[in-house]
């Protein structure tokens, strides 16, 4: 008890450090509208506890005593830094290497052989891919390993992966390409040895993606709810998995219309295990589990 009292006296803004914050209906609605407006993410009522939990840390860091003060802080800040901080905490970043393995099997066994044959006929030996909502990078690095392995005997082929997310903090982590040993459990041993450098640290074993793998990926901040997409290339396929679950039907449809314009004829979209493109079946045809081709 004495130790706790000492900590309170020492800590700057100690009142906020030990406050339990409550979020009123009106305050939650203001935050919901702001998040929807800036990101397209629709926060259901069941996300209220998550918002309180994740944003309470920001209130404490800023020395604020209530969500009312926090909302005023958001409105009065001109530089947008706190809005970025809020979005970084609201977005969920759950991913794994080789998550939903059937997608990478489809790539290796069906799509990449098709693209290879077409490219050899036309002489266009390059691919452009987008990992939309890349989180901490496991998805684009898995794509890079899968494609590198497929094209290892075809050095005249080139490919590039665009990896985007709203969360600037998680993008920085992704671009570094460093992962705890346990996170690489789904990665085949041969891939680990070929594409990652292993080192021991005081906190355990760390694997870092080798430069030749990292150089295949461009990490960028991108808002999928932007009115238009400024990408200047035609894409061969898009991974947008477990992203649409945060959007309403109108926003999902708008996003898929933009994807449709960016994709080459026969271009593919891969979505998450609980997602579907049935609302845009005039744009995309189902070809395999959570895998669609441009109509």
From TrEMBL:
GO biological process annotation, one example: methylation
GO MF, one example: protein-glutamate O-methyltransferase activity
Domain of life: Bacteria
Keyword Transferase tagged: yes
Enzyme class: transferase
Keywords tagged on the record: Methyltransferase, S-adenosyl-L-methionine, Transferase
Residue stretches making up the CheR-type methyltransferase domain: 16-295
Reactions the enzyme catalyzes: L-glutamyl-[protein] + S-adenosyl-L-methionine = [protein]-L-glutamate 5-O-methyl ester + S-adenosyl-L-homocysteine
Name this protein carries in UniProt: protein-glutamate O-methyltransferase
Organism the protein comes from: Dethiosulfatarculus sandiegensis
Lineage summary: Bacteria, Pseudomonadati, Thermodesulfobacteriota, Desulfarculia, Desulfarculales
